[in-house]
């Protein structure tokens, strides 16, 4: 049988709007989630974040590239690919996951370059490209 971590990673890899309904098998009710632009508490708030992702982006998909696990914690390197207004985008990131005694995610800290994620936005993306050109 798969470990809870393996089950969670399979859920992330196959995440769709319909599989989002099984979030209670992945996150603890009072789970904390943080990334460069969000700080959320509670499984319901995390579910809203993922639902918004499906409302905003076309074909969002996480690909798990590497996992290092020790005890109730894991480091997960991943790639997030999606389409926005018909154009393909993606960026690499990593998550640190801490599981509770029931094997559910109690805390998730995501790390990724927000400049890569914001590049598709018309005004922000143009500004970021200008800054990158000037720094090169």
UniProtKB/TrEMBL annotation:
It comes from the Bacteria. Pfam families: SnoaL_2. InterPro entries: NTF2-like_dom_sf, SnoaL-like. Residues 11-107 form the SnoaL-like domain. This is Nuclear transport factor 2 family protein.
